[in-house]
Amino acid sequence: MQKKLLHGQWRMVESDIAEDILAGRIAPQTQLPKETELMEKFGVGRHTVRRAISQLETRGLVRVEQGRGTFVQSRIDYRLSERTRFSQNLLDQGRETLGQPIHEEVIEAPTKIAEALRLPIGEPVYHIVRREFVDDKPISHSHSYFPVRRFPGFNDARRSGRSITSILADYGVPDYIRLRTDIVARLPTAEEARHLMQDPSLPVVALKKVDVDLKGMPVAYSESVWPGERVQFSIDNTSQLLDALARRSES
Length: 251
Known about the structure:
Blueprint: H1 10-22, H2 35-42, H3 46-58, E1 62-65, E2 69-72, E3 76-80, H4 86-91, E4 97-108, H5 111-117, E5 124-134, E6 137-147, H6 154-159, H7 164-170, E7 176-186, H8 190-196, E8 204-213, E9 218-227, E10 231-235, H9 238-250
Parallel strand pairs: 3-10
Antiparallel strand pairs: 1-2, 4-5, 5-6, 6-9, 7-8, 8-9
Helix pairs in contact: 1-3, 2-3
Protein name: Phosphonate metabolism transcriptional regulator PhnF
Domain HTH gntR-type: 7-75
InterPro entries: Bact_HTH_transcr_reg, Chorismate_lyase_/UTRA_dom_sf, CP_lyase_PhnF, Tscrpt_reg_HTH_GntR, UTRA, WH-like_DNA-bd_sf, WH_DNA-bd_sf
């Protein structure tokens, strides 16, 4: 961390430390210097340091352990594959997840959603808005769409907290795969920043995805945003590799 005179401005202390964390100059799980050391380093008071650390914790960049100190938090590694499942993806990493319903309604599918789900324009779809938490911090804000005709009552089942996988199985869809995922980095809207509890000047990662059953028919379309500082995405091609090796061994 580069030493500089900050004139008691906590945002500059926060920015300096965050820059080093995001650039990898401070490794995950590393303990930050003690308050007194940070005060001396930046030439600021205790209140300034505490406010900066509090904001870094809110951003999910550090965690404060009572009696031990402040540690750099590891980014969430969200793996994208043909069978991406939100809860299992994160539970496998020892993360605690929680879903929060925000809004639901039945709407007439506009062109974009109708095309993604291969439905006539205006066909009724469930529109479900949710926020997902990991380790008590918001990690995604999503808008998901499901065909009403094919999945009557889907919204009631989802509201009860059941997973999409288990609900679809009740409708005769025992398995589904990811057909397409589009990823782009951008700034959040005011609503997205509020739900993710982050500064609107910080970037988010926006995903658009289509899931299909094993006959290739779409079962869901969703758009979600994720805090760019708290999550990284990795592409898992293990299943494709295994399929290729199996075909090669058969030839």
